[in-house]
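Good morning,

Attaching, inline, the backbone tokens for the sequence recovery test we're adding to the shared suite. The designed sequence is right after.
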């Protein structure tokens, strides 16, 4: 494993490559040393990507649910904005009506 020099930028790894490495680690067919050698990645990094893949694997099966929750979140934000505008207008009208009543 080659250590990065001080000030050296880390190399960018594509999500596809990370997925391939994580899948190899999840399959458990190769040793850690073989996976490291094959993909030229440290064991620590492979372990991180493997854990990330395990954590996020369910999102692939939730497709429709994620879309629905996003739509609901957007609708909720829209309604909160409208409520805030209505409260502001109500407050302004109360203030103006007190001047007319006096």
């Amino acid at each position: 494993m080659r250590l990065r020099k001080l000030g050296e930028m880390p190399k960018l790894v594509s999500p596809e490559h990370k997925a391939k490495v994580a899948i190899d680690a999840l399959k458990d067919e190769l040793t850690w040393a073989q996976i490291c050698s094959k993909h030229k990645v440290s064991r620590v990094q492979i372990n991180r990507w493997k854990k990330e893949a395990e954590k996020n694997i369910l999102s692939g099966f939730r497709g429709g649910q994620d879309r629905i929750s996003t739509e609901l979140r957007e609708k909720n934000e829209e309604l909160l904005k409208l409520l805030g505008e209505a409260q502001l207008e109500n407050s302004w009208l109360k203030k103006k009506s007190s001047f007319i009543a006096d």
